Automatic annotation (TrEMBL):
It comes from the Bacteria. Residues 1-22 form the signal peptide. This is Tripartite-type tricarboxylate transporter, receptor component TctC. The keyword Signal applies. It comes from Georgenia halophila. PROSITE patterns: PROKAR_LIPOPROTEIN. Keywords: Signal. Belongs to the UPF0065 (bug) family. Transmembrane segments: none annotated. InterPro entries: BUG, Bug_dom1.
């Protein structure tokens, strides 16, 4: 096992919540907060990445892989470990990060859904993302797929079927609402959103069992768990949420033959995807898919620390071995946005007007009332 693999996985057994730091031997923050006067800031130190998901999931596994490369490229080669703090729709983890010393020895990971929740669902938020420095974000789109047994064998079948079409998701929050809206606009005879599933696996199982007609999953889950079902003829790939480049929705490079949701709308209705709902779709998608896994450091951490992290990350994202390991970890290529590029994607959702925020809240309320 290479040194970077050892570093990134070394804390796996003790990753659950509060045991993670103790199990990995984090350096005393009071003693380390001033850095190393005799050498690089991070020499002899330990950096903790707070991951707001359970150990063993895709984001946790990815963060541990990323941690190993960080350790290699940060001047001084500090140990980089992961602390898992699941709960509260990622808010518990970021609240924990905010309470940690702002000394450059802590980083946090969160998703685009978390970024959107600070605008639409701020209950329990004890942090301000605008006070953090965005170091890097790795993208990942969402796939929409249909049940062949429900008669969905092509995009056109969505508008030809007379039977109700049941679509499943996790929670009807801002991130899910834009996908539900896009499907709602396709012109299906009887579209029925059903929320409350535990994750991509449970949604896929519900599609296979006939409980759902349509499901969604991250592109990485789709490649790992749904593509075999597609190959067996049980699942029909339909569209992706897409990425945003220069304010425009573009196809997921991992699935170049699948239309984006706006393209699907235009194909089925003959109309251009425009108006308030589609503007909000683009803004939320910019945060959600472009920033699927985002890493921050405290904005008031020592400049020497932040500079060292910036320099290391610039090298990590260009490392061919990292790119290969990243792709193998997720099953798909995950585009990287560094620093200001990532901030620009986050700004798309933060710049929504009060009227647009209200539009989302009203749409969610309307769907929940059906």
């Amino acid at each position: 096992m290479s040194p970077r693999k050892h570093i990134s996985l070394g804390c796996a057994a003790g990753a659950a919540a509060s045991l993670a730091i103790a199990g990995c031997g984090v350096t005393n923050t009071e003693a380390s907060s001033e850095g190393n006067e005799d050498g690089p800031f991070y020499e002899g130190q330990t950096i903790t990445i707070v991951v707001p998901f359970d150990a063993g999931g895709a984001s946790d596994t990815y963060s541990r892989m990323f941690a190993g490369y960080l350790s290699e490229y940060i001047e001084g080669n500090p140990e980089v470990v992961v602390e898992n703090v699941p709960g509260g729709a990622q808010k518990d983890g970021l609240n924990r990060f905010e309470r940690m010393d702002h000394d450059g020895l802590a980083m946090a990971m969160g998703s685009g859904g978390l970024i959107a929740s600070t605008i639409f669902d701020s209950d329990g938020v004890q942090f301000d993302l605008s006070e953090y420095e965005t170091l890097v974000a790795f993208g990942g789109s969402m796939n929409i797929f249909g049940s062949a047994s429900a008669g969905i064998n092509s995009l056109e079948d969505l508008v030809e079927l007379e039977e109700p079409i049941y679509y499943g998701g996790l929670e009807l929050n801002a991130s899910e609402s834009v996908r539900t809206f896009a499907l709602d606009e396709l012109g299906m005879h009887d579209f029925q959103p059903l929320m409350g599933y535990d994750g991509g696996g449970s949604v896929t199982a519900a599609v296979l069992s006939g409980e759902l007609s349509l499901g969604n999953s991250t592109s990485s889950h789709y490649m790992e768990s749904v593509v075999p079902l597609e190959e067996d003829g049980e699942i029909t790939p339909l569209m992706t949420q897409g990425y945003v480049e220069d304010g425009e929705i573009v196809r997921d490079p991992a699935f170049p033959d699948l239309p984006t949701m706006p393209e699907a709308y235009e194909t089925l209705t003959g109309e251009t995807a425009e108006g308030t709902g589609w503007d909000i779709y683009t803004a939320v998608t910019t945060a959600q898919t472009n920033l699927l896994r985002t890493y921050w450091v405290h904005g008031d951490a020592p400049e020497e620390a932040r500079a060292a992290l910036r320099e290391a990350i610039a090298q990590v994202v260009e490392d061919e071995e990292f790119i290969q390991d990243s792709t193998e970890s997720l099953g798909v290529e995950s585009p990287a946005l560094v620093g200001e590029e990532a901030d620009a994607s986050a700004a798309a959702v933060h710049n929504l007007t009060p009227e647009q925020v209200q539009w989302v809240e009203d749409y969610i309320a309307e769907v929940n009332s059906r």
